[in-house]
Design a protein that fits this description.
Length: 615
């Protein structure tokens, strides 16, 4: 299945003979035209940049996915993950962590099934060309291409060529350009204590510590908890999996056979429901290969964690992890359980308690694997306790100080750009927390730029989402509309918004993601665009946030005009209206953001740990 083995050079493929081509890059398509591809060939693409041109020969490969179809596809995923989990757990010798691996792998595979459902019968028999794009990417590697090479592998008339992007440029999240003082104001003294503690404890003899917290990764609240524990004499030990060994030589014995046999009927039925008959066999084959890969990776990760996490009979220990609801977390949990070490984790952003769409991701929630969970508010605890996979003991401790400090981000009165639009427009090349394809999401985003932001009497900053992992080869076409607007300045540097909030007076954003937590906690006017079919608010969260902040629903009649008219008002008047919501906003924050609004989350969690688990 190696991409390298199947890639053919342009010299060995006669591009002129192909009338149907899969391609997601304008640059790659231009190269293909110059090397013989007919300009009348049908181009199948999901790339917003490709479809933006509205060329008659460029077709949306995801056209079958209307809102109703995507809703139907997504609404059945939660039951699918439960059924697969139970089926896997019924296999003799399969323990909880391994069943979670199989269930979450099935969830991940829905992205492949989504793409398989885009193909028609002719794609499996008639000549098809796939132009694979290579170039600079993020930490998880090249995800700029759909799995057409794998799905059409058995088509004897299928070929693939590879194109390497020219003048390629891709950057990742950075703090370059952010002053040390600004970083310190956000990170706080507890981060300094944490960093110093991890370095100091490496130099001190082990025998002086009788308590230890093991940190495989970190988040804002974990750092705060660990800094408090350090001041109470707890050893802070960072552990890293520096290099994951190759899993090609891992033997699975009968693991994959029995597990695949158990989950096969469940997945077979789902595949048959969504793809043409020609695609069933290859999709199921890819599913089996996917499970095998995940099982091997799990075994490798278990082996690696066994090397760095060792039970100490003379010391009270626990592991404090960030976002363990994934294959790394499952391997970590397995090793912790075998060593009788508690696995704790803390919330890493407000999302589950406000997002209606996240319900399909219950298998990936942290509480599916953690023994102890520290959360920002009671609302997320109620939701997580009701999930099928819950196994945690839950504690509400509030938001970390990094969020609380946002309220000290004073307005820069010298700024000539009072409004910032914090974009959360992130493309996924397939299944996402949205009932709209990437292309439709791009059109929606452009409408906000053209019909709202560009029409305002104020200067506006358009802040792009600082994505690390590159989804498409070409730049987001929405940015061309941003650049053409006289009153909008584009901020595309990969810097987190938390460092920029002090520059603006009114903060506008959209989609129920963790991004919302930072603006809300700043105390500045927040305008939230609730998109009905793209990661919308839950009904309860919508009711509360509408009282505490300014919420505009994109399904409302004259939505764009209402939003434009509101943002066209004097900034001072918007701030006055914001102050009038103060009482409702306090209640909203307690319910959906931080139950404790004056900080102290790290101290509360550390006190619980010292009193109940490190005695």
């Amino acid at each position: 299945m190696s991409l390298h083995n199947k890639t053919k050079s342009v010299k060995s493929v006669d591009l002129s003979k192909y009338t149907t081509v899969f391609c997601d890059s304008l640059q790659a398509l231009e190269w293909a035209y110059k090397n013989g591809l007919s300009e009348s060939a049908i181009i199948k693409s999901s790339s917003p940049a490709m479809l933006w041109s509205k060329e008659k020969n460029i077709h949306n490969v995801e056209a079958r996915w209307n809102i109703n179809e995507l809703d139907k596809f997504q609404s059945t995923i939660q039951k699918l993950t439960k059924d697969v989990f139970n089926a896997a757990l019924s296999v003799t010798g399969v323990e909880r962590e391994l069943a979670l691996v199989i269930s979450r792998s099935t969830y991940q595979f829905q992205k492949v099934l989504y793409k398989a459902a885009c193909l028609d019968a002719d794609d499996f028999t008639k000549p098809r060309l796939f132009i694979f794009v290579d170039g600079k990417t993020g930490p998880i590697g090249n995800i700029m291409n759909s799995a057409w090479d794998q799905l059409l592998l058995n088509n004897p008339s299928f070929s693939m060529v590879s194109y390497t992007l020219k003048n390629d440029d891709w950057k990742m999240l950075t703090t370059q350009g952010v002053s040390y003082w600004q970083r310190f104001k956000v990170a706080g003294y507890e981060t300094l204590i944490y960093r110093l503690s991890t370095k100091l404890t490496k130099r001190l003899p082990n025998w002086i510590f009788n308590k230890e917290v093991i940190m495989p990764n970190e988040n804002e609240l974990n750092i705060e908890i660990a800094s408090v524990l350090a001041l109470h004499g707890v050893k802070i030990s960072e552990v890293k999996l520096d290099s994951i060994s190759n899993d090609d030589d891992i033997a699975l014995d009968n693991d994959i056979t029995e597990l695949y046999k158990a989950v096969y009927p469940i997945m077979q039925k789902r595949v048959e429901d969504w793809v043409v008959s020609s695609a069933v066999e290859i999709t199921m084959s890819l599913f089996k290969s996917h499970l095998e890969k995940q099982l091997k990776q799990f075994k490798v990760l278990v082996s690696e964690y066994e090397r760095v996490i060792v039970k100490n009979s003379t010391r009270k220990q626990f592991v404090l992890a960030n976002a363990p609801g994934n294959i790394k977390g499952y391997a970590l949990a397995y090793v912790c359980r075998k060593n009788d070490i508690l696995l704790m984790s803390s919330q890493h952003g407000v999302t589950i308690e406000i997002s209606k769409a996240h319900d399909i991701m219950q298998i990936a929630f942290d509480n599916s694997v953690s023994d102890i969970m520290f959360s920002y508010n009671s609302r997320i605890i109620d939701i997580e306790k009701s999930t099928y996979f819950d196994k945690s003991k839950h504690y509400c401790v509030g938001m970390p100080l990094r969020h609380i400090r946002m309220k000290y981000s004073k307005k820069n009165h010298k700024s000539s750009t009072p409004i910032v639009y914090i974009s959360t427009n992130l493309y996924h090349m397939g299944l996402a927390l949205s009932s709209k394809t990437d292309y439709i999401k791009a059109l929606d985003e452009q409408s906000i730029v053209l019909l709202v932001l560009s029409k305002l009497p104020h200067k506006v900053c358009y802040k792009t989402y600082p994505e690390d992992n590159r989804r498409y080869a070409d730049p987001d076409p929405v940015l061309s509309s941003v650049k053409n607007a006289d009153n909008i300045e584009l901020f595309s540097d990969k810097i987190d918004m938390r460092y920029l909030i002090s520059k603006y007076s009114v903060l506008v954003t959209t989609c129920a993601t963790s991004t919302l937590g930072w603006p809300i906690m700043s105390g500045k006017p927040v305008v939230f665009i609730n998109q009905k079919y793209n990661n919308p608010l839950t009904e309860d969260a919508h009711a509360s946030i509408s009282k505490g902040a300014f919420v505009f629903d994109d399904c409302d009649k004259n939505f764009h005009k209402k939003l434009k008219d509101f943002l066209s008002q004097p900034i001072e008047y918007i701030e006055k209206l914001w102050q009038e919501k103060e009482s409702d906003r306090k209640e909203m924050i307690v319910n959906y953001f931080s139950e404790y609004t004056d900080g102290g989350a790290g101290k509360r969690a550390a006190k619980i740990i010292l009193r109940n688990y490190l005695i």
